[in-house]
């Protein structure tokens, strides 16, 4: 978990310098340190770090480059590497950053120090940062903790993160924040009318379940629904081995809504929160659902299964219908749902769908403020016919390959009985290491939502 320097710590400075301000900065340094920076070729390029010695050679400060505006636009958390470049001890930022840029620098410090060491512990001393004046420290820490939780859940292999382990993590979070949690398991899903969650998970030896958390007793009701497919073989329409390599991350939607739920509860937002996670494993056995099976959903809509590998929308559909029975003010679903979304916007952006233009503006602004970029994709009504197979109400996998992310979102919308709905089709994975984002599991969209919630719920939170 993130560590920060206590208030009474003696801290060393980290000077944040952009290219335009380098000459003035050098002029204000002691001559020896200015000469040192010139000698090592420091030009304040984004992310460049140099340690500054005193006359005796001891490290007394550090300088990190903040580059140019165009460089910063191309690389978020560009200065985060300083957290790994300075020696252990306590540090503080010095420089002209303020507002969202300063918060990004502080958050990037903590995110850069993340390591998934469950299976290969590494003893290391980390540098600690004094939270900068003018930054909401509680929010920065909550966001960092949330990202650690999300990354840890996604990075854990399916052997240790099946439906039961997802339940344990879910209930632990509820206990931590004084929320209530309940679970429906196995054949009880059929008895309590969650037929599609049951159909997807029944082939596994690890029983499917629906996880339900509730927190708060006043304010608008927000329901978060996260796809918790703990491993996805593709079912009988089996994936090739290359397609299964990352399928431990197919519960990335669940992991991300748990991170978001942590932020909401840790910050004590004035709302009522409900979190629903259908936790399943899409496996293969004699009990597996088959291509061309027709399932009857909780809402009563029938669904033709034209691809057993399009299972995420099935489990989300039952959970979304259930969510709407409680008359929520806002429903948000998050899922690693389609490869089409990755093709459309790549791994860095979290695409979302909504019919509400105000929500779209709020989320876009929230993403910019929180270094969590999002991008709106269309719920184009002209594609509705693509998800209507004729033999049933809905098709879970339209043929043709066009607009796969949009048709998946349109499918989910059929199960939502409120216009106040947003769906995120996230990747949940960082394919190559980047500043503050090591390769592996990654949350997407949660911070953008956190910043957007007041505007989306029309409330002071």
From TrEMBL:
Biological processes, Gene Ontology terms: proteolysis
Keywords: Aminopeptidase, Hydrolase, Manganese, Protease
SUPFAM superfamilies with a match to the protein in the record: Zn-dependent exopeptidases (SSF53187)
Cellular-component GO terms for this entry: cytoplasm
Gene Ontology MF: a single term: metalloaminopeptidase activity
Annotated Cytosol aminopeptidase domain residues: 307-314
Pfam families hit by this protein: Peptidase_M17, Peptidase_M17_N_1
Family: Belongs to the peptidase M17 family.
PANTHER family reported for this sequence: LEUCINE AMINOPEPTIDASE-RELATED (PTHR11963), PEPTIDASE B (PTHR11963:SF20)
Name of the protein this chain belongs to: Leucyl aminopeptidase
């Amino acid at each position: 978990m993130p560590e920060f320097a206590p208030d009474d710590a003696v801290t060393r400075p980290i000077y944040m310098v952009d290219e335009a301000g380098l000459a003035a900065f050098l002029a204000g340094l002691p001559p020896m340190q200015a000469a040192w920076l010139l000698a090592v070729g420091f030009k304040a390029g984004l992310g460049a770090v140099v340690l500054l010695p005193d006359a005796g050679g001891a490290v007394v400060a550090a300088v990190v480059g903040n580059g140019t505006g165009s460089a910063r636009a191309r690389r978020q958390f560009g200065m985060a590497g300083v957290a790994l470049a300075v020696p252990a001890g306590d540090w503080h930022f010095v420089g002209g950053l303020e507002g969202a840029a300063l918060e990004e620098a502080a958050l990037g410090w903590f995110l850069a120090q993340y390591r998934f060491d469950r299976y290969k512990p590494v003893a290391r001393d980390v540098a600690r940062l004094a939270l900068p004046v003018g930054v909401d420290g509680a929010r920065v820490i909550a966001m960092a903790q949330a990202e650690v939780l999300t990354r840890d859940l996604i990075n854990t292999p399916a052997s240790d993160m099946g439906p039961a382990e997802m339940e344990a993590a879910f209930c632990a979070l509820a206990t931590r924040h004084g929320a209530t949690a309940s679970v429906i398991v196995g054949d009880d899903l059929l008895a309590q009318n969650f037929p599609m969650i049951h159909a997807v998970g029944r082939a596994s030896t690890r029983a499917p379940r629906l996880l339900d958390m509730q927190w708060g007793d006043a304010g608008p009701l927000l329901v978060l629904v996260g796809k918790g497919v703990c491993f996805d073989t593709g079912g009988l329409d089996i994936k090739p081995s290359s397609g299964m390599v990352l399928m431990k991350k197919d519960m990335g939607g669940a992991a991300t809504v748990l991170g978001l739920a942590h932020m909401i509860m840790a910050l004590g937002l004035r709302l009522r929160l409900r979190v629903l996670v259908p936790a399943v494993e899409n496996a293969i056995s004699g009990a597996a659902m088959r291509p061309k099976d027709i399932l009857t959903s909780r809402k009563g809509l029938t669904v033709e299964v034209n691809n057993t590998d399009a299972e995420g929308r099935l489990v989300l559909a039952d959970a979304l219908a259930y969510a709407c029975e409680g008359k929520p003010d806002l429903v948000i679903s998050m899922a690693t749902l389609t490869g089409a979304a990755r093709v459309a916007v790549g791994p860095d952006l979290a695409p979302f769908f909504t019919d509400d233009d105000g929500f779209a503006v709020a989320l876009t602004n929230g993403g910019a403020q929180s270094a969590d970029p999002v991008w709106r994709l269309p719920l184009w009504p002209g594609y509705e016919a693509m998800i209507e197979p004729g033999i049933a109400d809905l098709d879970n996998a339209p043929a043709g390959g066009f607009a796969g992310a949009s048709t998946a979102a349109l499918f989910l919308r059929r199960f939502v009985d409120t216009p106040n709905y947003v769906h995120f089709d996230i990747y949940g994975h960082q394919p190559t290491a980047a500043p503050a984002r090591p390769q592996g599991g990654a949350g997407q969209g949660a911070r953008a939502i956190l910043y957007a919630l007041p505007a989306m719920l029309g409330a002071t939170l």
